[in-house]
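User: Modeling request: complex.
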Amino acid sequence: MEIREIKALLALMQEYGLTELELEDKRRGRLKLVRALAASAAIPDSGIAARAQLGGQPARHLAARVSKSGGAAAAPAISENQRLVTSPMVGTFYRASAPDASPYVEEGSSVRKGQTLCIIEAMKMMNEIEAKMAGHIVRILCENAQAVEYGQPLMVIQVG
Amino acid sequence: MFKKLLVANRGTVAIRIIRACHELGLKTIAVYSTADKDSLHVRMADEAVCIGPAAAEHSYLNIPAIISTALTYGADAVHPGYGFLSENGDFAEACHRSGVAFVGPRARHIRLMGDKPRARRIMKRAGVPILPGSEGTGVTELREAQADAKRLGYPVLIKAAAGGGGKGMRVARDAVELARLFPLARAESEAAFGARTMYLEKYLESARHVEFQIIADNQRKLTHLGERDCSIQRRHQKVLEEAPCPVMTKRLRDKMGKAAVRAAQVVGYSNLGTVEFLLVPDGQFYFIEMNTRIQVEHGVTEMVTSIDLVKESIRLASGETLGSKHRQIEIDGAAIECRVYAEDPNTHLPSPGIVTNHHPPGGLGVRVETALYDGYRVPVHYDPLIAKVIAHGEDRSEAILRAKAALREYLIDGIKTNIPLHLQILDDPDFVAGRFGTDFLGRFEPRLEIVAERRAKAS
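Assistant: Request completed. Predicted assembly structure:
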């Protein structure tokens, strides 16, 4: 199969919005074209990844395995006027300033901009995490004294 | 022995360390940046913790984030791998102060060997031959460099006192070049290491880069595990390495090995290290520096000695001592490592992107260390080293044939790699005959361009 024929097929796929096209021909063998959808915005060229195959599907077990850790991947779904509070560092999440103190916030608490929401302890340093906007706490996503990583969602704030 | 080890690195070396831990029965924690969340090391480790954004200074070079991860997630040891924080004395000290074992030498040895003029002074006192060069603590001004160059005679090599990785390094062939390149090299050193101190060494045109693997326990017992020849370099960066050195004799190995052992012994070194020498055709050799970590090219030594260096580094850090297997090594055959970079083989420009198809080679005597998989995106933020292909043979010619067969078999679609460059090196008559020095690739590359031109014309 020549490049110009493949190009013509790719154009057809785009025209009809196809994501996959497979052709088999006794004389010329098999050709499979796959359009990368989710990643297409990030691919600098046409957004179409073409792969000509001789045999079966290559093993994809590693690529298909989902990341086991939390982090950005585990972000809960939030609505338009809600915001996530994420951890700016690796450390331990605390809801109060001391074991016997009452928590900074509860689910349902109103918060003003700059108010302390929780503490992340990293290397014996207590880092206060402040609200970036006024609103109220919809959900608290972590348990007290839980280990958290960089970018891990801690709370959901309803703006306003 | 430790229970849980934090791997403070990414890519090929993180995979290498995780495998060693699994064999030793240790749990592993991978750390990663947001750009690496789909990386293989994240998937292979028992736990994975995101420590910061893509920029290395905020993630893989972020000492508080890594120490905090070790403490929060309960690691009792940290392995730094190579690059990133592996030769950072402050990191080793921070681990120690936090009660986490650092797999490597003591902080003071990292700092000592990282100060190149100081290392030269110590070696000179210990009777280890050094190259003629700047005396004392180094130079910061052009006029001092000019005075040194006049005394040494051109060509000279300008180096950063805090150097490493070819940064702040330039060859000056006359006074005009020195005046032009010295400020440039100094600016590069300031940007990379935050230090203006430089030093000069006599530049030897066609010397070989021969380095000795040192292994030492915490009881000051140490030995060497033979040498590697890393003369195939581009801009002072290694491209292809082999063990043993093709021109090595038993007598020379004994002599150089003794000097390497003395270099490490005189400072009371522990764990793994590499003493680098330049070797000239008449058999004279000169200390250039000591690297205080596992090297990228450690695999060739492993293949010819059957000693797992990464496992040894962890055992030694836990307090185990050297035994007879380390002292009575035999060099078995020959091994060659080709560093596969995500780069254009002609322009050497980085080629990041999605690997649409990945099929590594295999077979007897072929070892591939890589973090690639089908669909993996090679990020733009880090080193372009994506795979190491190591071929081991009964002798050097078999190792060369195996390396060629393996590289031809290696399928990496979607990005460009330097595999074509490796195939040209392995086919070169001078390389096959073992006749080369550190200037080999410099002389060799114009020929590559001619070949490419001929091909373009023919098609």
